Structure formats: C-alpha cells, structure tokens
Amino acid sequence: MKHFQFTLKVPGSTSNLGPGFDSIGLAINRFLTIHVESADRWDIHFTNNEIVLPDVKENLFYRAAYRVSELYKKQLPPLKIVMDSEIPLARGLGSSAAAIVGGIETANLVLELNLTLKEKGYIASSFEGHPDNATASLLGGLTISTHTDESTETIVCAAPNIDIVAMIPSFELQTKKARAVLPDQLSYKQAVEASSISNVLVAAIFQNNWVLAGKMMEKDLFHHPYRKQLVPDLVKITELGHELGAYGTILSGAGPTIISFVPKNKGEKIGQLISQKFPNYQYEVLQPISHGVITLPANETMKLVP
C-alpha cells in the first residue's frame, strides 16, 4: 500500500458581507492545519486534545473525504489526521468549510484524482449547501459564487487591502439555529430591493470603494433584520464603528462574531476602542488573504509531525 504523509493549510473565511447572502466569501489569515499520514486505522484528533471530536464516521472532515471517495468509486485507506486550528468553532469564521475543504483535498491527493478547482468547488459547495465559505477556503481572495444542483460558478477577486476587526463573543451560534429565524420567502418587491443592494455592494468592492461597500453591507435585507435578535450587541457595535471610522459592521456569516471592515492599519486601534466598551468580546484583527488551501512542502510537513 502506498504511504502518504503531507500537511494541508486551509484558511478560514468570513461570508455574506451583508447582502451577499450565501454567495460572497472572503478568505482570512486564520488557518486549519491538517497533518495527514497513512495508518492501520482511522484516527482524527487535535494537537492539544482539548477539542472533543465526534466519532470518526461523524466527523466533518471524514465525511467530506468519504463523499469524494463515493463519488469517484474509490476506497479511501485509513489515515491518521492531526489538526491544529486557529479558527474559532461555531463563530461564523468558516471552521466547518475549512474542515470540508481539507477533507476534499485530502481525498483528492490520497486517491490521486487530480480534481480541478471547479470540481472541488462544486463538491464542497454541495456538501455544505452554499458556496460562500467553501469557495473562499478553496480558492482564497474574495469569492462571489452561485451554486445549483448542476454546477458552482465562482468569480475570484483579489484580496482587498483593508483590515477586519472581529469581535468574537464567548457564546456559540450554530448555523442551524441562525437559519431557523429566517423567513421562508420575501415579497417580490423586497427581493428586488435586496438584490439591488447586493449588486451595488459587489460593484463597490470591484471599484475599491469601501465607503459605499460598507454602506451597502449594513443595508442588507436578506438576513440581518432577522438574525440581529440573536446577537444583541450588533446594533451598538455598529453605531460605535461609525464613530470610529469603520466602513461597515456586520455579522460574520451567520454570526455570532461581529466584524467591522476598516481602513488598512487602523484595525488594532479600532479593535482596542471597541473592546474597551464591549469587554465580553475577544477582538482580533484579521487580514484578507489571496490563497486558498495549500499543501506544505515536505520539510515543513516534517516540522509539524506530532
């Protein structure tokens, strides 16, 4: 049996950016590192062993890898997987998508499938149910996607030259709960208005007009009006962001993390000032990054072997 040993580095992501609901993703400089090597039986754990994982067959990474093996009718050999994550779990920063992309890329390498980025994007988006975080973790940069049963189409923009201040609360918010508060449908008039706001957001991003982009973020009609009840400090932090010069403040993905898009090199100062008023949140200054999942060179892999 062929022996495998490699390490993947998968970026986390923020998504939606307000009205780009289930479509826009942005890779950030927080990573899930996955060391993979051949084994006699499956073993998946984190380096610090403090994170309790489900049984292997229920693990998100395993399920994504196994899905690929099923699709291509190949048997996935047992592997030892050791993970180390900088991405907070269940906080709206793409931890699930990173695990899914990592599982798909692992299966692609181990089974020697040579999948294209488009094929991997479709599998990841199908698995997660929406393409925003998945395409950002896979491709890097800012991704704008649409996903159907037939295909996933993605445009990749360069990583914007801004800072992102993330206010991370102590509580988790599962995506399932965050989706449960959304309406089943919008009226035709609401849908037209909501999509036009999203259109202007995208155009503003392409023109690097972050003042207008931030304004459009906060005008979202798709999910913020319904989810803000789940994150009570969103309105107050948004107002404070305006005072401090933030372009726009929104939920990261489904929340509960609140993110402010701010001018480059202003993130640390603005983060400190927000944190003084909201000490129950941990703040981090994030940067958009241009690359998606990467396989580390062999010499880097050896350094990470537990």
Which structural traits does this protein have?
37% helix, alpha+beta, globular, Alpha-Beta Plaits, 2 domains, 306 residues, four-stranded antiparallel β-sheet
Describe what you observe in this structure:
The chain is α+β, with helices and mostly antiparallel strands and 306 residues long. The protein folds into 2 domains: 5-158 and 290-304, 2-Layer Sandwich (Ribosomal Protein S5, domain 2); 162-286, GHMP kinase, C-terminal domain (Alpha-Beta Plaits, 2-Layer Sandwich). Helices cover 37% and strands 24% of the residues. It has helices at 60-71, 95-110, 117-128, 132-139, 175-180, 188-206, 210-217, 224-227, 234-244, 267-277, 298-304, and strands at 5-15, 24-38, 43-46, 79-85, 142-147, 152-157, 162-168, 248-251, 258-263, 282-286, 294-295. The strands form 2 sheets. Strands 1, 2, 3, 4, 5, 6 and 11 form a 7-stranded mixed β-sheet that branches. A 4-stranded antiparallel β-sheet has the order 8-9-7-10. A hairpin with an 8-residue loop joins strand 1 and strand 2. It is globular, with a radius of gyration of 19 Å. The mean pLDDT is 93.
Number of strands: 11
Oligomer status: single chain
* CATH T-level fold name of the largest domain: Ribosomal Protein S5, domain 2
The helix content, as a percent range, equals 25-40%
Biggest pleated-sheet summary: 7 strands, mixed
> Would you tell me the structural class of the helices and strands?
alpha+beta
CATH class of the largest domain: Alpha Beta
* CATH architecture identity of the largest domain: 2-Layer Sandwich
Low-confidence stretches: none
Q: What is the average per-residue confidence, as pLDDT, rounded to a whole number?
A: 93
CA gyration radius, whole angstroms: 19 Å
Give the amount of beta strand, in percent: 15-25%
In sequence order, what are the helices and strands, one letter per element? EEEHEHHHEEEHHHHHEEHEEH
Number of domains: 2
What is the overall number of helices?
11
Distance between the termini: 23 Å
The 3D shape can be described as: globular
Main location: cytoplasm
GO molecular function: ATP binding; homoserine kinase activity
Domain GHMP kinase C-terminal: 202-277
Pfam families: GHMP_kinases_C, GHMP_kinases_N
